[in-house]
User: Which sequence fits this backbone?
């Protein structure tokens, strides 16, 4: 699933608009631009609601700068790839799906989508991928040396990467992630990780150091623990951190697993949430009227769905992509740990796995209802709708199905969405 | 069953000549398929990577779940409208007609649509056998090891369900039987560089029969068909018309027949219900584990678009088209079939010297045969004109629905 989303929030949005509007696409290829952006962020010239968000934007800018650096060994990597390997080898990676989310958060998606649509791509495939294709055709993105994708969750990611590898005539490394989670599957993934490492070594001319790999896995584990703590705080009845706030931080999940920076950002966020809860308790703030779980991604382009919910006293208190589904990782067994993380995604494999995860989230975050956003073109997600609806009905959990698109806003009709939300909240009351 | 019996049961007449003979074959296949549908214990499968030898070794007829050639009213309740019409049609079929005589279904993780189909089927087949199997994306040593293990587990599960002992010798017998059938099918497909006496839609019809009939019965029919084809070739009864290459998603026979009906000669195809499903082979190594052999056999075949090697394989395509003197290429993919969608784009860019007709539609044709007929007819006419003109003249011909590449390169008729 691609939901890569570098929606680094409205603040980054402002920077983006200032620097990207009206400038030649070639300027975007200048690393200096991102250095300037980082300086702006570091010197406090922009205001952020959380210190952790400032750190996040700084980190994201740094990564983009690296990606555009001339001579960078840049690997385009799909949303669920084993990023620990890149950190351990010191290889820069770039996610086209995340880039699409970033483009949509800046409000430039239409130009990208139209470009892709004028060159074969129709509107029936995932707009994360279509928008990325537009970026490729328009030459906005840094040039890849190789492609690396894993097979979860959708067919689209593998196909997009295979297509791009053929287009750029660059090598394509694929991590085939089986649906099963048994010993054979684990061994298969470990073997493939070894072969991807060998290919990345050849590509970069660097040798994988065992201690670096252990370090990356230790960072991944630290990030997992810190994210667990953030999520524990999100269970609080006052719900200090909603889906709207959380979306930007998904950048870390998609791009930052294995980086030493990620645990720091989560740790800072946890600390800030504690403060916020204390403040809210002291001020005797009221909890939201309805607590909701958001399935799949909310739209990334400017929209008021989540704000509208808030206005009605309902809050999306959690979103499925923030769910920590993987077990603790053992730096002493790095490849096994990464393989287990790869295999354990709840959206991969039989739909029962996702249903089980939804139930866990419903109970853990004590939600009153669930909103499923059916992103047009996502076969993985839309295909499960019937199973999810039947399951939640059996469990007695109210569900609102919203059809839409996370990236393409051309069919977004706020009035219709609001009417559906009103009806749903009435039912919950 | 012996050929004479089939013949006698079929008509009680002497064998008719050429066209009537072909029609007779077609009717015979229909009857045999109907008989299998009604009388045999079967196990449904969907993806052409399914190791049918294992199913047959458990005394079941491996039976491809084809899609119903009708509206998918019941299936639409269970499968989202953004999943391809093939899986919706297959579910409709399983729910209405074939579902009553099937022992169950085995599905592979070929694509998202197939995995959602599995979920739907498993709810209906809760009392029957239902199995979902991983399918690697390449034939790397790790993938072969992994898949061989999967195949062994599948065989165990099916044998247990059938209450029979797992017998490797029975599996080996089936491997030999299927190997022979594929070899003969490959021979039929092999000799098509020159003039052809059999149109490709009849070969596809045969492939379909191979996916529905017991292998032993299919072998008899195949032998007869091969004789017929050879005689036609010797007599010089050749098909006339533009030489075509057809590729794309799973298509209904009705759709494919429109090409012949409009005067096209289907020389080759790249369909998983056509050439790709039968023209692969591997020689077992001495003492090789049969599951490893099967993994090698299937994963090593020419890659379908969901496989890792499919995009790189396009580099060879244009040479193949030249070798077979192809006049035009038809790419027909199903709406919402991502695999062909992504591959199709590169295909369109790579084929530079041969006209390509691109069609997007439903399993049963683009919302009715009429539209499809018109488009194929226009394409064939364009090819005929081109054949009768020099290359320079051809470029002056009127443009038909072309978007971003030169006329006689691509007709993009996607809706
Ligand atoms: S198809 Fe679905 S899973 Fe894949 S990138 Fe798009 S939204 Fe994510
Ligand atoms: S036609 Fe395409 S989408 Fe449909 S089952 Fe086949 S590969 Fe999957």
Assistant:
């Amino acid at each position: 699933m691609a939901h890569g989303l570098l929606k680094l929030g409205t603040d980054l949005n402002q920077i983006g608009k200032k620097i990207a509007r009206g400038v030649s696409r070639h300027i975007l290829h200048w690393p200096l631009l991102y250095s300037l952006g980082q300086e702006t962020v570091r010197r406090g010239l922009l205001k952020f609601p959380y210190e952790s968000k400032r750190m996040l934007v700084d980190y994201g800018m740094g990564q983009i700068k690296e990606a555009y650096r001339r001579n960078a060994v840049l690997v385009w990597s799909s949303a669920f790839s084993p990023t620990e390997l890149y950190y351990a080898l010191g290889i820069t990676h770039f996610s086209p799906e995340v880039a699409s989310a970033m483009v949509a958060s800046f409000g430039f998606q239409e130009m990208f989508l139209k470009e892709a649509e004028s060159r074969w791509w129709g509107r029936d495939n995932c707009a994360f991928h279509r928008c990325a294709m537009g970026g490729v055709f328009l030459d906005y993105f840094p040039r890849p040396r190789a492609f690396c994708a894993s097979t979860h969750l959708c067919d689209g990611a593998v196909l997009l990467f295979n297509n791009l590898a053929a287009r750029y005539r660059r090598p394509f490394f694929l991590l085939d992630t089986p649906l099963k989670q048994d010993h054979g599957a684990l061994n298969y993934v470990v073997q493939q990780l070894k072969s991807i490492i060998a290919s990345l070594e050849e590509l970069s001319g660097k040798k994988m150091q065992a201690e670096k790999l252990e370090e990356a896995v230790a960072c991944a584990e630290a990030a997992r623990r810190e994210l667990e703590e953030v999520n524990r705080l999100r269970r609080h009845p006052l719900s200090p951190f909603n889906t709207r706030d959380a979306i930007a931080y998904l950048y870390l999940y998609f791009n930052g697993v294995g980086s030493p920076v990620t645990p720091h950002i989560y740790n800072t966020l946890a600390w800030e949430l504690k403060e916020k809860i204390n403040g809210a308790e002291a001020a005797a703030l009221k909890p939201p009227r309805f607590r909701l779980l958001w399935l799949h991604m909310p739209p990334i382009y400017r929209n008021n769905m989540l704000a509208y919910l808030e206005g009605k006293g309902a809050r999306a208190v959690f979103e499925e992509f923030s769910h920590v589904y993987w077990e603790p990782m053992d730096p002493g067994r790095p490849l096994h740990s990464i393989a287990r993380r790869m295999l354990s995604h709840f959206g991969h494999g039989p739909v029962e796995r996702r249903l089980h995860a939804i139930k866990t989230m419903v109970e853990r975050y004590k939600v009153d209802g669930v909103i499923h956003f059916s992103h047009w073109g996502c076969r993985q997600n839309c295909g499960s709708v019937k199973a999810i609806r039947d399951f939640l009905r059996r469990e007695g959990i109210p569900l609102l199905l919203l059809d839409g698109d996370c990236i393409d806003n051309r069919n977004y009709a706020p009035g219709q969405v609001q009417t559906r939300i009103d009806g749903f909240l009435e039912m919950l009351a | 069953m012996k050929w004479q019996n089939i013949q006698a049961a079929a008509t009680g007449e002497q064998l008719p000549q050429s066209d009537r003979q072909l029609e007779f074959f077609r009717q015979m296949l229909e009857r045999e398929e109907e008989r299998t549908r009604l009388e045999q214990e079967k196990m449904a499968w969907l993806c052409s990577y399914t190791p049918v030898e294992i199913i047959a070794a458990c005394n079941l007829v491996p039976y491809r779940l084809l899609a119903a050639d009708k509206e998918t009213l019941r299936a639409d309740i269970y499968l989202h409208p953004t999943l391809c019409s093939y899986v919706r049609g297959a579910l409709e079929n399983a729910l209405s007609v074939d579902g009553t005589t099937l022992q169950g279904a085995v599905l592979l993780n070929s694509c998202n649509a197939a995995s959602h189909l599995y979920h739907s089927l498993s709810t209906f087949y809760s009392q029957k056998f239902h199995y979902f199997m991983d399918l690697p994306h390449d034939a790397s040593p790790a993938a072969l090891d992994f898949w061989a293990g999967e195949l062994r587990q599948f065989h165990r599960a099916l044998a247990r369900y059938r209450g029979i002992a797992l017998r490797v010798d029975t599996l080996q017998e089936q491997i030999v039987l299927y190997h022979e059938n594929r070899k003969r099918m490959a021979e039929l497909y092999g000799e098509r560089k020159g003039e052809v006496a059999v149109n490709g839609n009849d070969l596809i019809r045969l492939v379909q029969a191979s996916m529905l009939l017991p292998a032993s019965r299919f072998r008899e029919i195949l032998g007869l068909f091969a004789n017929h084809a050879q005689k036609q070739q010797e007599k010089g009864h050749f098909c006339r018309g533009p030489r075509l290459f057809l590729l794309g998603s799973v298509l209904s026979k009705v759709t494919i027949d429109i090409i012949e009906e409009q005067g096209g000669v289907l020389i080759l195809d790249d369909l998983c219900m056509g050439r790709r499903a039968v023209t692969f082979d591997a020689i077992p190594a001495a003492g090789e584990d049969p599951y490893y052999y099967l993994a090698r056999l299937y994963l090593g075949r020419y890659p379908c678009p969901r496989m890792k090697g499919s995009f790189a394989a396009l580099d060879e395509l244009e040479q193949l088209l030249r070798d077979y003197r192809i006049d035009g290429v038809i790419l027909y993919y199903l709406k919402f079939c991502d695999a062909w969608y992504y591959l199709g784009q590169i295909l369109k860019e790579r084929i530079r010297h041969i006209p390509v007709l691109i069609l997007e539609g439903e399993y049963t044709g683009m919302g009715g045969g009429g539209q499809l007929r018109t488009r194929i007819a226009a394409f064939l006419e364009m090819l005929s004109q081109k054949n009768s003109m020099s290359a320079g003249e051809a470029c002056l011909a009127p443009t038909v629905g072309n978007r971003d590449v030169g006329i006689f390169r691509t007709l993009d008729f996607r809706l």
Observations:
- Chain B touches chain A through 48 residues (CB under 8 Å).
- Residues 168-190 of chain B form the longest helix (23 residues).
